[in-house]
Write a structure and sequence with these properties.
The complex is a heterotrimer of chains A (400), B (289) and C (325).
Chain A (H helix, E strand, L loop, with lengths): L1 H13 L8 E9 L8 H16 L2 E3 L5 E10 L5 H13 L5 E4 L3 H5 L2 H7 L3 E3 L14 E3 L4 H14 L4 E7 L2 H16 L3 E8 L7 H9 L6 E5 L4 H12 L8 E4 L5 H4 L10 E4 L8 H14 L7 H20 L5 H8 L5 E3 L2 E5 L6 E13 L2 E13 L2 H5 L4
Parallel strand pairs in A: 1-3, 1-4, 4-5, 5-6, 7-8, 7-9, 9-10, 10-11
Antiparallel strand pairs in A: 2-3, 11-14, 12-13, 13-14, 14-15
Chain B lengths: L1 H32 L6 H17 L4 H24 L6 H24 L15 E3 L4 E3 H23 L1 H11 L1 H6 L4 H22 L10 H4 L1 H11 L4 H21 L4 H15 L12
Antiparallel strand pairs in B: 1-2
Helix pairs in contact in B: 1-5, 1-8, 1-10, 1-11, 2-3, 2-4, 2-8, 3-8, 5-6, 10-11, 11-12
Chain C lengths: L6 H19 L4 H23 L8 H17 L4 H23 L4 H21 L1 H4 L24 H22 L2 H11 L1 H6 L4 H27 L9 H14 L5 H20 L3 H16 L9 H16 L2
Helix pairs in contact in C: 2-7, 2-10, 2-11, 2-12, 3-4, 3-10, 4-10, 7-10, 11-12, 12-13
The chains are: A alpha/beta (400), B mainly alpha (289), C mainly alpha (325).
Chain lengths: 400, 289, 325
């Protein structure tokens, strides 16, 4: 009797669970949850979780198999690229991930190049915005933006709207230099003139002297154009802009990512009227944006806010799901990349986008928006749109 | 041109005032208790965050700053009894390490409670205005900092130079053994001084939040600045810390205006050269004042 | 008497045996092991100056970082040979250590501390700005390493890096051990406790300090170079105040002035950090800070000193047994 029972149990254990076994697709997720960039990790993750809440945590593969999509999260801790590289090695060697995603900082994304080529796995970059990144490995796909892409439409816009002279202050790091070049070229090509082009040290949060010099500049510029990392630097710069009387003197303020919705509540009303160019206006009414925002508020409370991290992650996970549905969980790394960089126009909370097949980088609409008060709250309101903008850096640096 | 120079001066001195208010506590405790306190920035940070938290809940700015000052002092009292008292005889290394440990704990605590987003102090509208000071309009906030800093310096000077407490303090700095020998309760003196020092740090953190922004890594980021003020001025020297804070504020501001490329580089190089030339600081004390 | 079972030899051989065993069983954790050894070497170098000579510095990452960048830049611009690179990076760092040592070692206390911080900060700023040389905040890209001894490639898996690091660590350990147990080492002990008295008996205190500072800088530079080879990458963090602080924390946790304290401290720190970072982001900062405070207040000799009582008891037992007829 006991023998029969144990034989039955053994047989039951050996029998296949079902014809369609669940496969797992592991995504190694590298982003910062602590340190200066601590907002990126949670913002990315919430958007991905929102997507998974709507579309499920698994995908049906091409042969009907169930593919569980598992996120293996590692905190890049706002540290240097060496930390990111170490985490990636860990994810590949220990966790045996099939793909890497996340990466809010350009140095972190760059540090993935070697590993992606050695381990032959795709990397979906959900924020890092330096142009040259996508060239560093054939396994890179970017779903966020490239810095020159979203700043250069502003050049023509400003000239078209009467800004004949401008004073530019950018943060002294690679993206800032890109802005200097590409916004600079666009503005001058449209007929604008720079009174000065200044770089402020990356860690600087005291802009009193910089802003003072704008006021003292001769001739007095029509506008101040800035490029600062979002957060404390932007907030402080705009504060000084008001506090030192630039606004009162009639100098208009232009920028790009400084007035992201998540930071707007920390600004004073001096920020009203600031015009920025960006690929994502948080309170837009696109159906997919409404879906994302509603789901986020349902899962994380009414105060939850979207930002470019949310949309980069949402579109990233969407592409991954589509790739898995078409290719299954065991396809070759480059095949996934090829699928995602299809050139097809895809709906998104930002509006729409396309991943260029050759550059594997994103092409999308750029919005010009103004900071206004809506229902008593500061927010960005779209006032113009520049369609399907490509990263101008790529044209200047053709692939060999 | 003159207006420009005066602006730089005003900017530099107002920044220097924040540095002074925060660092004066450090120089006195380092000179008096001879404890290397790398966690001093944490008390300034605590004052800043407490004030910010209260103003964000609508409490009057001045009241919030006052409460933050007292709270920082209270925090100092707790830390003195628990952590610093055992350190007095343990030597430089132990002090450096324990206070680094405190810094780590404070950064973790602040991140856990307040998050990593920048945390602003909501200032009353009259401080956000521009004031006409004759040759230009200038931010009221910076004038306010100048006022508070100057008043603090004056009060401290009076206490240290002209009060019995000040005399005792100076005696204990000059010669602790002798001071004990004549019956002074040096432990109580240490405690009171430390509490006042931390309270001042909290005050500086609270009113200085417009210049030294509040974020979890505040305690680590700015401690080097405070230490520079203390060392350059001379440990234990009240006058020295005032002069050093003003000098640092002006040099730093000028660096930002004119040499923003190499500003921070210049600062460290200047400190390096200065310390090699004058290892005891610019105005080392024979006594506290 | 069976020498193989002599407890002293067992005690000393065990970490190395463990390291060799780890090589075979580690799997995907091998690179973590390499990291632990690199930090052990770095902490060991700090023990020489901080623990034995009593030089309280917060700027030791200057030498670690300099060594890392030297090795990295040499591999890109001059030669990819990892042996030549290591020797060159170590030599260059020793030169830096010597130069800075003679400039600042006549000061003490907080002044000295500030000077070490100033040196570290200047190096950091320089590396940050010299984009063409160091890659700036993007890090040093494009390191290409030749196979070690012409045979062993540096792969993603990290076998070569591990064994190379182990060999260098062993060598430096031997040097350190001999040093601290020599008359020179004892004189350092004396200098730490009472420099005035040492001068009074004729010891060239300042020269001894310069010598140990230079040696320690060289060792830190080797650790830095190995770190560059292990990840084929150098980031600005190698020159950060944080790195300097962490290595001091490791040393104190494990126990200064014990050689093996560096081993224990680095191992525990990295393991705890690896573990608690997964549990909660701010937990490990809290835990490390708390541990540090606890160690300073209650455990003077670091965690190694926890072994003191049991080891002494074992020794007594063995000696007692040996004395029995």
């Amino acid at each position: 009797m006991k023998r029969i029972l144990s034989l039955l149990v053994a047989a039951a254990l050996c029998a296949p669970a079902s014809a369609a076994l669940a496969e797992t697709f592991k995504i190694g997720f590298i982003a910062s949850y602590t340190g200066v960039f601590a907002t990126w990790g949670p913002q990315f993750q919430h958007a991905i979780e929102a997507y998974q809440a709507i579309h499920g945590k698994s995908v049906k593969g091409p042969k009907g198999e169930t593919i569980d999509v598992v996120l293996v999260v590692r905190d890049a801790a706002s540290a240097g690229p060496d930390k990111a590289k170490q985490l990636a090695e860990e994810l590949v060697l220990r966790e045996k991930v099939n793909m890497i995603a996340g990466l809010e900082l350009s140095p972190h994304a760059m540090a993935m190049a070697d590993i992606s080529k050695q381990a032959k796995i795709p990397v979906v970059i959900m924020n890092a915005a330096t142009s040259s990144i996508t060239r560093m490995s054939p396994y890179f796909v970017r779903t966020s933006m490239a810095v020159p892409q979203f700043v250069h439409p502003m050049g023509k816009y400003m000239v078209d709207h009467g800004v004949k002279t401008a004073y530019m202050i950018v943060s002294d790091y690679a993206p800032g230099h890109d802005v200097e070049t590409y916004f600079g070229k666009a503005y001058e090509a449209a007929g604008g003139k720079f009174v000065a082009k200044v770089r402020s040290p990356l860690n600087n949060v005291d802009f009193s002297s910089y802003v003072e010099k704008v006021l003292q500049a001769s001739p007095r510029p029509d506008a101040l154009y800035i490029f600062m990392p979002a957060g404390t630097p932007s907030i402080n710069l705009v504060k000084e802009y008001g506090a030192r009387g630039l606004k009162a003197a009639g100098i208009k303020l232009f920028g790009s990512g400084e007035t992201q919705q998540i930071y707007l509540k920390n600004f004073t009303d001096d920020v009203l009227g600031t015009i920025t160019s960006n690929h994502y206006t948080e309170w837009n009414t696109n159906p997919e944006n409404v879906q994302l925002r509603t789901q986020l508020k349902k899962m994380y409370g009414d105060k939850e806010e979207t930002d470019i991290a949310s949309v980069g992650a949402w579109d990233g996970i969407k592409l991954i799901y589509q790739a898995l549905a078409a290719l299954g969980a065991k396809a070759d790394g480059l095949k996934y990349v090829e699928f995602m960089a299809s050139g097809k126009t895809i709906d998104s909370p930002r509006g729409r986008f396309m991943i260029d097949p050759k550059e594997r980088d994103i092409v999308q609409d750029i919005n010009i928006r103004e900071v206004r008060k809506v229902n008593g709250q500061l927010t960005n309101v779209d006032i113009a749109k520049v369609p399907m903008v490509r990263d101008p850096w790529k044209a200047d640096h053709p692939m060999k | 041109m003159i207006s420009y120079a005066l602006t730089i001066l005003l900017d530099g001195v107002s920044f220097g005032m924040v540095l002074f208010i925060i660092s004066v506590g450090l120089t006195i405790t380092m000179g008096l208790m001879r404890v290397v306190n790398l966690a001093h920035g944490s008390f300034a940070m605590a004052g800043g965050y407490i004030a910010a938290m209260m103003t964000q809940r609508g409490i009057d700015y001045h009241l919030a700053v006052a409460i933050a000052t007292v709270a920082a002092g209270a925090l100092g009292a707790i830390c003195e009894v628990l952590f610093y008292r055992p350190l007095y005889r343990k030597g430089d290394l132990a002090q450096v390490l324990l206070t680094i440990g405190l810094v780590f704990v404070s950064i973790a605590a602040v991140t856990a409670v307040f998050g990593a987003f920048p945390y602003p102090v909501i200032m009353p509208s009259y401080l956000q205005q521009l004031v006409d000071i004759g040759f230009r309009t200038y931010p009221a906030y910076r004038l306010f900092v100048l006022g508070v800093g100057g008043a603090t310096a004056l009060i401290l000077w009076i206490v240290i130079e002209h009060s019995l407490f000040g005399a005792r303090l100076r005696a204990a700095v000059d010669n602790p053994r002798m001071a004990r020998g004549v019956g002074m309760n040096v432990n109580l003196l240490f405690l009171i001084t430390f509490v006042v020092g931390c309270g001042l740090a909290g005050l500086g953190g609270a009113i200085g939040a417009g210049m030294l922004s509040l974020e979890p890594t505040y305690a680590l980021k700015y401690i080097v600045l405070f230490l520079v003020v203390v060392i350059v001025g001379g440990e234990g020297s009240f006058k020295g810390s005032f002069v050093a804070a003003m000098a640092l504020g002006i040099i730093d501001t000028m660096g930002r205006y004119f040499f923003h490329d190499i500003a921070s580089y210049m600062l460290y190089a200047a400190v390096f050269v200065l310390l090699l030339w004058r290892p005891k600081g610019l105005l080392p004390p024979k006594s506290v004042a | 008497m069976n020498i193989a079972l002599d407890p002293k030899i067992v005690w000393h051989a065990s970490p190395w045996l463990l390291a060799v065993v780890f090589f075979f069983v580690a799997g995907g954790y091998l690179s973590l092991g390499t990291q632990v050894m690199i930090w052990i070497l770095f902490a060991l170098s700090l023990d020489l100056v901080l623990g034995y000579a009593g030089i309280v510095t917060l700027g030791h990452a200057a030498y670690f970082g300099f060594g890392a960048y030297a090795a990295g830049i040499l591999s890109i611009r001059l030669t990819g040979d990892p042996l030549i690179g290591l020797v060159a990076a170590t030599a260059l760092t020793a030169a830096l250590g010597f130069a800075t040592g003679i400039l600042i070692l006549h000061t003490t206390g907080v002044t000295f501390l500030m000077l070490t911080l100033a040196i570290l900060s200047m190096l950091y700023e320089y590396a940050n700005r010299a984009n063409d040389l160091t890659g700036g905040d993007n890090g040093l890209q494009g390191m290409q390493l030749d196979p070690l001894l012409g045979q062993f490639e540096f792969t993603l898996f990290g076998e070569t890096a591990y064994l190379y690091t182990l060999a260098v660590l062993f060598l430096c350990f031997l040097v350190s051990w001999r040093l601290v147990h020599s008359p020179f080492g004892r004189s350092l002990d004396g200098i730490r406790q009472n420099p005035r008295r040492m001068r009074a008996i004729g010891t060239p205190v300042w020269w001894r300090l310069v010598a140990i500072y230079t040696l320690s800088a060289a060792m830190a530079g080797s650790a830095g170079a190995l770190s560059a080879y292990a990840t084929r990458f150098v980031g600005l963090s190698v020159l950060s105040l944080f790195t300097s602080g962490i290595v001091a924390v490791m040393l104190i946790l494990g126990g200064a002035r014990r050689i093996y304290g560096a081993f224990l401290g680095a191992l525990i720190y990295i393991v705890v950090q690896d573990f608690s970072a997964k549990v909660s982001p701010y937990l490990w900062e809290f835990v490390v800070g708390g541990l540090l405070i606890a160690v300073v207040l209650f455990l003077e000799g670091g965690l190694m000193s926890l072994f003191d009582a049991p080891v002494a008891a074992v020794k007594r037992r063995l000696r007692g047994e040996a004395r029995d007829p």
